[in-house]
From TrEMBL:
Residues 2-134 form the EVE domain. It holds the Pfam family EVE. This is Putative RNA-binding protein with PUA-like domain. It comes from the Bacteria.
Length: 146
């Protein structure tokens, strides 16, 4: 099982815009960091993740899932070294979890959001995922496939 965190500036692409894309989802484009790209290349259909508002809000606001495997990023103007996945909204996090909340909790001291803050697509451990869901009031957290 794999879990992820996707960071987006809400004035560029918000959780509300992601939800509006429905079941079809949307490409997660514009990633120009090799580690983040490699994270997307490792993703599988059905992998779950958090949608995180960066710059404004600084909080986990929703849960998404991968609905299309890594493919050429349409915003890369034909540059073959950049890929993206498609993700779709699964559900809101009823009580958004702020970066401040995460940094204050020793359970998350090794979380990529704390240790690699600038990375736009990050791995999340199953333990981190389940605890953030619990803290955020997600009743039955959707799980990634085995």
């Amino acid at each position: 099982m794999a879990y992820w965190l996707y960071k987006s500036e809400p004035d560029v692409w918000s959780w509300e815009q992601q939800k509006a894309k429905g079941k079809a989802g949307e490409e997660w484009t514009g990633v120009r960091n090799y580690q983040a790209r490699n994270n997307m290349r490792a993703m599988k259909i059905g992998d779950k993740g958090f949608f995180y508002h960066s710059n404004e809000g600084l909080e986990i606001v929703g849960i998404v899932e991968v609905c299309a495997l890594s493919h050429p990023d349409s915003s890369a103007k034909g540059d073959p070294k950049w890929d993206c996945v498609d993700i779709r909204a699964v559900e809101d996090v009823p009580k958004p979890i702020t970066l401040k909340d995460i940094k204050a909790n020793p359970q998350f001291e090794k979380m990529a959001l704390v240790t690699s803050m600038r990375l736009s697509v990050q791995p999340v451990t199953e333990e981190e995922y389940l605890e953030i869901c619990r803290l955020g009031g997600v009743k039955n957290p959707p799980r990634s496939p085995d």
